[in-house]
């Protein structure tokens, strides 16, 4: 026979409810932080795209190519180092930056065509 808790059943149920309440409160609090961080990420991305759109217009005016692989290599090196220092997976950081840069280049190509 396995060991059973010594508490009466209704008392055990009450403490389980208390744990559930504490877990629920922690989950809500963590999700509030996540929502704030997501909002900050969206605002930062919007600012970044404002800057890259200006770069795109400048490049188009001066007949410069939409992509700059050397600049991208420098950024990836820098971002990977920042990620490692921040305990973020550098592989993920690189993928994330490449995802954003691909979208920026798509915008620059569209600006050049317009
Ligand atoms: C914004 C630029 O255009 C492209 C997009 C980049 C980016 O999003 O960081 C970097 C290099 C370029 O391929 C740039 O040349 O600076």
From TrEMBL:
The keyword Transferase does not apply. SUPFAM superfamilies: Chorismate mutase II. Keywords: Isomerase. InterPro entries: Chorismate_II_sf, Chorismate_mutase-related, CM_bact, CM_dom_sf, CM_II_prokaryot. Residues 21-112 form the Chorismate mutase domain. It holds the Pfam family CM_2. NCBIfam families: CM_mono_cladeE (TIGR01795), PRK09239.1 (NF006691). This is Chorismate mutase.
